[in-house]
Inverse folding.
């Protein structure tokens, strides 16, 4: 029998068989490793398992880009089998500011981008038809209400404005030389109005949710201490000092907390124990109760008590803040002088022009951010750790989790500001395009 001539002689066929067998044993493990999430890094020569990126943002109609390639999936998105590396994540939507960050994907770990909101590109609108005669605006911490103080001729009026319903009503009217003092509680929608003349001082206490439900208290001006402290309570209640008595004022009336107290710099804690600072001796001490407490040493003078609970005390002297852990008597000082309370985390935010710190109920604290831009105010924007910062001429957000900031408004003057999270609105008293008014900025 004769065979046709071929170049595939026995040597070549053996070579092909050996090649195919070797390819099988080389490629098969690679395929298995690849499908089980292993990748070879050409830069380092290492073999490592892949990671995952999850993205969940609002609005959920936004587009998500991974290294400038759009991910054609609906939010929430999960991208698997990513080799360990840094990936650029861009989230965008028409009419909103773009979210952009480099994310480090690690081997065998999932990285989640969550609790992220895109902010609207909007311009502020005037809330009031006329800002004439308004001399002061004080916002409630949750941005739902504002107290407006007006002066026309010799008459001062204090009005309450509800930002959601746009309703406004008058609370007090007085003919007085001094402007009424207004204040909101950090712990609920409660406010007081203090009207003082040379003879008597009248304090109106109210709940903003029921503005007609008020209580008024009249004192001899000379016998009343200037210090007024809000009680840590959702219900309207304040502490005042008349002569040598500290009293609690509420919508149900007044009661004496302690008597025969000859101190000036005082504070009532959550147990109604009274503390006092002796700036001459540089000490903090509980001055009520039956037991004589041991004073806590202070490093500075001219201290004012910001807050005291069962675990820590916070004081300031306008140059620095002192935190004392009451059980261990350990103290630390940080260079801040301004404060606001966050109802989301039950913590105090304190800042200087260049730094922001957070102090928790336990007395622990941390540096939140250090910046080269001057900070004027700090307010919590949501429960996930986003802050709203203002300077002399801008409003911006700062996300403490992703360390990202976004300017929402520039070239404006901000005097007072608050956030209504439910309405997703920022309310502020300031100047925009040379117009002074009470403004709303949607975000």
């Amino acid at each position: 029998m004769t065979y046709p001539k071929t170049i595939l002689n026995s040597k070549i066929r053996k070579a092909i068989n050996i090649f195919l067998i070797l390819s099988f044993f080389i490629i098969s493990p690679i395929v298995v490793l690849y499908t089980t999430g292993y990748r070879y890094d050409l830069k380092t020569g290492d073999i490592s398992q892949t990671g995952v990126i999850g993205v969940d943002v609002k609005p959920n109609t936004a587009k998500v880009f991974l290294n400038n390639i759009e991910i054609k999936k609906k939010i929430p998105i999960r991208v698997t089998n990513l080799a360990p590396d840094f990936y650029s994540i861009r989230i965008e939507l028409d009419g909103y500011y773009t979210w952009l960050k480099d994310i480090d994907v690690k081997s065998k770990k999932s990285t989640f981008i969550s609790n992220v909101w895109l902010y609207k590109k909007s311009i502020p609108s005037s809330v009031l038809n006329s800002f004439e005669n308004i001399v002061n605006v004080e916002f409630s911490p949750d941005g739902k209400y504002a107290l407006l103080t007006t002066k026309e001729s010799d008459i001062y009026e204090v009005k309450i404005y509800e930002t959601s319903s746009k309703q406004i009503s008058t609370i007090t009217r007085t003919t007085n030389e001094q402007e009424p003092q207004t204040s909101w509680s950090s712990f609920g929608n409660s406010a007081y109005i203090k009207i003082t003349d040379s003879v008597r001082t009248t304090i109106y206490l109210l709940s903003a949710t029921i503005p007609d439900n008020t209580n008024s208290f009249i004192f001899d001006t000379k016998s009343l201490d200037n210090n007024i402290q809000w009680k840590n309570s959702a219900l309207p209640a304040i502490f005042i000092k008349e002569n040598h008595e500290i009293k609690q004022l509420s919508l149900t009336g007044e009661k004496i907390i302690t008597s025969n107290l000859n101190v000036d710099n005082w504070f009532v804690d959550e147990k109604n124990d009274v503390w006092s600072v002796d700036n001459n001796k540089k000490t903090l001490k509980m001055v009520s109760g039956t037991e004589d407490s041991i004073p806590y040493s202070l490093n500075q003078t001219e201290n004012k008590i910001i807050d005291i609970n069962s675990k820590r005390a916070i004081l300031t002297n306008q140059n620095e803040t002192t935190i004392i852990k009451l059980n261990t008597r350990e103290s630390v000082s940080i260079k801040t002088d301004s404060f606001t309370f966050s109802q989301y985390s039950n913590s105090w935010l304190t800042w200087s022009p260049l730094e922001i710190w957070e102090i928790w109920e336990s007395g622990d604290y941390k540096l939140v951010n250090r910046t080269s831009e001057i900070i004027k105010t700090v307010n919590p924007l949501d429960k996930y750790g986003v802050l709203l910062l203002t300077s002399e001429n801008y409003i911006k957000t700062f996300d403490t989790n992703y360390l990202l900031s976004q300017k929402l408004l520039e070239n404006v003057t901000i005097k007072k500001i608050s956030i209504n999270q439910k309405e997703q609105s920022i309310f502020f008293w300031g100047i925009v395009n040379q117009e002074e008014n009470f403004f709303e900025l949607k975000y």
